[in-house]
Design goal:
With 287 residues, the protein is of the alpha/beta class. Helix content is 50%, strand content 14%. The chain has a single domain (7-204, 221-235), classed as 2-enoyl-CoA Hydratase, Chain A, domain 1 (Alpha-Beta Complex). It has helices spanning 31-45, 86-96, 112-119, 147-155, 157-166, 172-178, 187-203, 206-220, 224-237, 241-257, 259-264, 266-272, 277-283; strands at 7-13, 16-21, 52-57, 100-105, 108-110, 122-126, 131-133, 170-171, 183-185. The strands form two sheets. The chain has a six-stranded mixed beta sheet with strand order 1-2-3-4-6-9, sandwiched between helices. α1 links the parallel β2 and β3. 39% of the residues are buried. This is Enoyl-CoA hydratase. One of its GO terms (molecular function) is catalytic activity.
Length: 287
């Protein structure tokens, strides 16, 4: 029996589409997510009517989360293009698409999910529920989908390094002060605000929107080759001994506490994987 896709599309009007992600309980990105997102972004880029695309989630507490670590070495390569990961082609296509992309972020947005959000043109975050992070370094691997190339351009070298090296979680207010998100919105107002922005943009001429985006892209986007190089470094990092040591510890936390509890405070639990065993075993007894 064919499993339902983690991605669904709602056509709100001829000019506006909403892409919704659903992979409960914690919205981990899996290979099917990558393939379907790539198909959808390509299709919408070729639709001359589409002006605005919204990315959202149907799982409370999670936007697009990080890649499923059990599938870390299995993410798809683009058919017909040697050496091109589908994810890299996806985020590059999204950042250059002729439509305006808006991430409506309500929940945890880490790793690949954060890289997808960074590839969007506008990021509006629930002040109460949005959380951001890049967990890779803390578990002994490297980011691979655009974070290292995009985030420092947004928030500066030092803050970009802090976020990537610490592998910690950042709330919406701190993310906004850093320049990580366009703006935080009170949760009860988020949907209404995004709808208002979408309606406004849909009134404008598509060619003017696309041309203005292309002008900004020219001075802000990283070279495509840098993202491809980072992916190669990520693949190499999967072979590092430190990765093989820390991932089992993270999985042990999940087995003892449950995936939802660990994912809700992933930055905290990643910190535990780097503590001596006699420390993290005692900390695991805490709520």
């Amino acid at each position: 029996m064919t499993q339902p896709s983690t991605i669904s599309i709602a056509r709100l009007s001829p000019k506006v589409c909403k892409i919704k992600f659903s992979n409960p309980p914690t919205n981990l990105i899996v290979p099917e997510t990558v393939n379907r997102l790539h198909e959808v972004v390509k299709e919408l880029s070729e639709d001359e009517n589409v002006q605005v695309v919204i990315f959202s989630s149907t799982v409370f507490g999670y936007f697009f989360n990080h890649f499923d670590l059990d599938e870390a070495g299995k993410f798809p390569m683009l058919a017909g293009v040697e050496g091109m990961p589908t994810w890299i082609d996806l985020v590059v296509r999204l950042s250059k698409a002729p439509f305006i992309s808006i991430a409506s972020i309500r929940g945890r947005t880490r790793g690949g999910g954060n890289e997808l959000a960074l590839a969007c043109d506008l990021r509006y975050a629930s002040r109460e529920h949005a959380v951001f992070g890049q967990p890779e370094v803390g578990i002994g691997i490297l980011p691979s989908g655009g974070c290292s190339e995009r985030l420092p351009r947004l928030i500066g070298r030092d803050r970009g390094l802090e976020a990537i090296l610490s592998s910690d979680d950042y709330d919406a207010d701190l993310a906004e002060r850093y320049g990580w998100v366009t703006r935080p919105i009170p949760d009860e107002e988020l949907d209404r605000f995004v709808e208002g922005m979408v309606s406004r943009l849909a009134l404008f001429d598509k060619s003017a929107l696309a041309a203005a985006k292309a002008q900004v892209n020219r001075v802000t986007l990283p070279p495509d080759a840098d993202l491809l190089m980072a992916h190669g470094e990520y693949v190499e990092s999967l072979t590092w001994a430190v990765d093989q040591a820390r991932l089992p510890l993270l999985r042990m936390h999940i087995a003892e506490k449950g995936i939802e509890k660990v994912e809700s405070r992933l930055g905290y639990y990643i910190g535990l994987t780097n503590q001596p065993p006699f420390i993290w075993r005692s900390l695991l007894l805490r709520p």
